[in-house]
Amino acid sequence: MTRLSSISPQKPKQRKKNMAQTLDWDVVIDEISGVYEILEAMGMASMSSSNGESLKLCVFDLRRGQNEGHELDKILFFFPPDVSFSSQLSVIGLSEGLIIFTRLFSPEAACEVIEAERHSHVFYEAEPDIWMVMAVEKNKEIEAIWRVDALQKVLKKVHSLFVMFHGSVRSLLDKEPSGGLIGSHLQLYVLFWNF
């Protein structure tokens, strides 16, 4: 196994700081390859479309943007980036409404999937009140159950890789409350997979 550096005896805080330097890169490459294989098998490895309708990926914090006029504060990341703010808020507002509505009836089980006529919305609560949502245009050739399961795996892997390299989203928000750092880190993952 290839290691970037070896671990030397250090204080716990120093050890945590150097964790990214001691990653097992074989494991990291396997994780990234796994996500790409899922997307490729679904015909989504390169899903950019001219109208931006085939895929939307967003990460948002339910705790933020609760006051009128500050709704954009809840958006930590949105792909594609050229979607208007009103469209972004529409996707996130729908997602937030569905999450809150389902919590009323099933507080112990989070909203996971919404199947609409033209789109599937896959939800993943990555951390408490930090949600990842992927809205994907339906493809009649791919079985819906398999597609949703694969998309949930993609969201979980993206979060897992993010935490491996950068720590939890909440800890980054505590350090940098604007959320800009999270967005820039996530943008690198999206560019890597060439959605």
Automatic annotation (TrEMBL):
One Pfam family it belongs to? Intu_longin_1
Q: Which GO terms describe its biological process?
A: vesicle-mediated transport
InterPro entries referenced in this protein's UniProt entry, alphabetically: Ccz1 (IPR013176), CCZ1/INTU/HSP4_longin_1 (IPR043987)
Q: Where is the CCZ1/INTU/HSP4 first Longin domain?
A: 58-167
Listed under GO cellular component are: Mon1-Ccz1 complex
Family per similarity comment: Belongs to the CCZ1 family.
The name under which this protein is listed is Vacuolar fusion protein CCZ1 homolog B isoform X1
Q: Which organism is it from?
A: Raphanus sativus
